[in-house]
């Protein structure tokens, strides 16, 4: 009893280290990506000792230690099966045997995680104990003599060590079953060869074999469940690491620091993809993946995929296109998330294995009836291509075309296997056509339900209000790839067309080649900054000398704004760019530069006065009353359209048309009439254009009235 109390005083909980993103964590991620979680096939293991030596090396990559050892359970007794350092064998043996005797090892096996104990002779040194336990029984114990203080160990190292040792325990258990089955097979073959096997013996052997296989299947399920749980828990903090890396990458950093952040972000993304693949694979192995069935809009999904993958293709100099046949319905019923996963995986692979040319996603209708449709999704690339022998292995677990593919492009070989299983689960088929050097075509056919009335409903409204000048061409000038990507995404959300330039020199070249309506100009750029570029544009004799230019800079002081305007810029935006601020500045600059105010007034006062018997003051009161709630009526129209409420939208348009007609706002009246006609025809695309035009005309009328002397009753 006293010995147990003494031992309990040596026990410590595994210390938790705060913080993330350290160089140690980067190294641990690299160790995990370097196959720390992978185990050899059972028929490839020459001996238990060789396998344990390999596990010990992988464990040493995760936790700094001076020596490691494995104890295995044989007939409920522990025996030392491996020690990495013969000089420490005697000491580790003595320490472990004492811990076995006083019950500490039994306590450690029940914990299911790593624990720390002080060594008996030198309290400043520590041993790490971790049980090797399968779902059926304990397999043994892992012991490590630590080379650093316990408080310096990381949470990530603990998690990776637990995964590695749990897989090792599962492998040891399966290895025993495998060798038992092999021995039984050898025994049976011997009996058959000597004609000694009887029908009863074969039946008994069959029952024993079925029992062993059942145990192995159950063990495999337990392993997959464990991996799924651990993968899920690891994915949560990794999302945090990745999110912080994204924020750091978008901040002002020295070039050396930016390269480090990009490395962290790239490795975190790779590890997150691996964990997600392992999680999905485990769900599929354990038959735990369930499909969700609900309505979704196909082109909205394709837009998300294009926004996600197009920047990567552009960085490689590839064209990225999506083409949908006109006979493919918009409203479908199925698992939107899993469809997106398969499409993104195939398109992402196509981009990865293509160095020049293009990647094309095409959709076509393959069949269906009034309630269902079968759609073929095809991803074609102009990449390296695949040989016939390689194609036969593509959809197998942990398999790629050949070994050189893994070395050059990376990856686990899980993506295509998971995609095939998902397509099978969704009731579809998947295939590939390819030849070396001629690119590849991956395709899959999936059945979907049709949404009925959902097919004609409008797309859900964006939280970002579109620009009053849809389709305007914007030149984005910024030396930061991240900033260009963010600006391009915001410009497209505003309904504008964006073209990016990585330097002022490149922007000047683009201006010579094609016309633009506006420039978003970064100020701080190498070689030629934004102020210098603006001066060259304004002093040139080229047609683009008067193009509107908006400064985009991290400077937020009044002096920065003044310097931009004095250089000839039209307006100024401080980073980070907010969507609403960007829309407002672009609309105001384009409104001023395009000279909209010089056109005919939005209200025909002469016509209104002729209707009212020449009473001009009364006519101005009518206009003032109309303008008073115009903003509210415009918002009501936008909300009704966004909700897809045709009846409410029709009522709002009708009320607005009547008010516009009574106020002689002829352009606004025409737009509301167009909107009513689109609603009657159930043409939501035309309705969307009419709503945008309605907002342009309405806000123009508001600005005209608020700046007009007529507002005060004067000419």
Terminal Cα separation, in Å? Answer: 104 Å
Strand residue content: 15-25%
Which structural category do the helix and sheet elements fall into? alpha/beta
Assembly state of the chains shown:
single chain
How would you state the average pLDDT, rounded? 78
Main β-sheet description: 7 strands, mixed
In the predicted model, the low-confidence regions spanning at least 5 consecutive residues are: 1-6, 401-412, 453-463
The total beta strand count reads 18
- What's the number of helices? 24
Helix content: 40-55%
Using only C-alpha atoms, the radius of gyration works out to 35 Å
Taken from the alpha-carbon principal axes, the silhouette is elongated
Description:
The chain has 24 helices and 18 strands. Mean pLDDT is 78; it is low at 1-6, 401-412 and 453-463. Strands 7, 8, 9, 10, 11, 12 and 13 form a seven-stranded mixed beta sheet that branches. Strands 1-4-5-6-2-3 form a six-stranded antiparallel beta sheet. It has a five-stranded parallel beta sheet with strand order 15-14-16-17-18, with helices on both faces. Helix 21 (630-642) runs antiparallel to helix 24. By secondary structure, it is of the alpha/beta class.
